[in-house]
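Changelog-adjacent note: as of this version, every example in the card shows the full chain rather than a window. The one below runs 311 residues end to end.
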Amino acid sequence: MESNSNVLPRPLRGIIPPMVTPLLDRDTLDVAGLERLIEHILAGGVNGLFILGTTGEAPSLSQRLRCELIEHVCAQVKGRVPVLVGITDTCFVESVNIACKAKDAGAQAVVLAPPYYFPAGQGELLEYLAHLMPELPLPLFLYNMPSYTKLVFEPETVRAAADITGIVGIKESSGDMFYFRQLLSLLKKRPDFSLLIGQEELLAEAILLGGHGGVCGGANLVPHLYVDLYNAARSKDLSTVEALHKKVMQIITAIYGVGKYESSYLKGLKCALWCMGICSDFLAEPFHRFRSNERNVIRRHIEELGISQKQ
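Full-length structure tokens:
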């Protein structure tokens, strides 16, 4: 049975990790590492898998490699969970092309941030979405990531976009909880529209407020922790939420706080996966993997955190 025979849940709920892209060099997948990573994540009980997002280094990958990744992931997941594929591009046609590739491979949905570089107005973004949706073969999640795109899907734009056939949710990664609350209020009459939080430090708060799930980078490392936190928040088990949230904050501080550049999040995440024996820690240029000093710090941190280490 093809994976795209699965129906995408409406709304999509739970933990949908933004998977890192294991690389051997700037244009070669670490296929063995990718296979281990997928099984590691799925074993944690997650509700989906998001590839070619920010954590997946999508803007730094060739179109050829993106297509290869989509094929590998969909073939291995085999419909066990929905696969969401990032199609963000500065070119309308390339976004459509990668969406078609995702559909052919068996993905369930695509994810789109506003085209970066040329700043668009909110009216232009809505028109862009209205033109794009008839061309897309899969449901679309919006991706609000203003720190990187320099554009915001303003709340009224999201509300209007929710009325466009095929747009089924949003991944909110601004970290602005006032904005998140605005979306919750504006989308009250659309219980089928999924509102997902990006920042893992805000996962518990977002779910307690009525959000549907989280797209949390740390779920590459310890997926069961984020699944347990989501479940505790959804059932309003506040003592468990407090304990698990503390563990998430320890991971954020220890793993993402090493290094001095904005790329430290990705470097720390990939380095930790390498230390665990799961996949290569190579990063697409212009970034580079941690050197030995930082690697030793990450290794010590994952030992202190009790994260399973195989290497």
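Structural remarks: DSSP finds twelve helices and ten strands in the chain.
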